[in-house]
Amino acid sequence: MTVGPSVPDFDLLGDECRRDPSAAFAAARDESWIVRTVRGYEVITYAACRELSVDRRLDSVGPSYYRDLGASGEIMWYATQASLPMIEEPRHARIRKALQYGFTRPRIEGLRPRMREIAARLLDRLTDRDPFDLVGDFTDIYPIEVLCALMGVPEADIARFRGWTVDLGLLAKFPLQPHMARIDAAIRGLREYLGELIERRRAEPGDDFVSTVIAAQRETGTLTPDELCGALLNLLFAGHDTTRYQFGSAIQLLVEHGLWSRLRAAPEAIPAAVEESMRLEPSLHVLLRQAVEDVEYAGLTIPAGTALILNTFAANRDPAMFADPDRFDLRRVDAGRHLTFGVGGHMCLGHLLARTEMSEALRLFLDRFPGLALAGEPAVPAGLSAMSGAERIPMTVGSGLG
After folding, report:
1. CATH 3.40.50.300 fits 53-280+341-396, yes or no
2. Domain map of the chain by residue range?
3. What is the model's pTM?
4. Residues of the chain with pLDDT under 70
């Protein structure tokens, strides 16, 4: 059968999905590995998402995704020059190869003291704020400062573009039209700033991500000015907005599931807690692919040109892969096999950075706030988005400071 009428419908906007998306996807998964939603064809089982994400018959979705949404010229520049997950082969591999030089394990490990310094300074500011907003007072600031330390961006410049990186998160909204003016302004501002930064690093190289990627092009092949600027823009966007949501979610989940004290008593489980939070509540829960030829899979024919949405939220809660998938389990040995960062040649280049900075920050939170508790209902934006997370999480130090 050809993908189309044979694929069951799934109402992403319906009351059932709004109330309990995990249960809604579980019911749909019992019927089919693929469903049709308002966004298109969505793959919802772990096995299918993992296999199709590395299937060579599928490629990046390309700029057509945003073109079909009536995107502006600035957004189309982003789709063709900056969004690595949307850039097709062989450009994808060429750009990715250059960027890998900046994400080495020694470089990330060398940032740990700086991560702790940034997190400690932000937590010091919370000692006289009770309750406080986990997002506004910490997660909105911490990842962008870590990124700037990686990139060699002066701390004084952070305020200049922090709002732009947040506004780029609106690229995940559906529909796109109501948010286009803010997105356009963010892209223009970041392009101007990053163009200046690249020229400074060409003239005066340093021991930082930007200088490393510029130098790496002697080995990997030259990136165009737009590709280099776009790669840095995407790094700021992907490394800020996703991590600010993900870390806020990790703290919230640990508190809600009554695991805060247990993790504090066993800090060696911090990396496992980070992995389990990313499995259970991924901040970015869709990966986009497009068939470059007719694909036969699980009894269906996916015609060339068909776009697929690999729904990692649904896949990460598939009981065929993860036992008791709705439970936050600090002892889950396979939590790191979640699909939140993707797999294979499209795996997120910044996965080690994100894992490391969240682990370092979580360790300090556990040490400083032994009685941390929610102080109100988290504020989650309404509407359909490929990115998920609270914009405000009120918290209290509870029984005091550590």
Report:
1. no
2. 53-280+341-396
3. 0.92
4. 1-2, 399-402
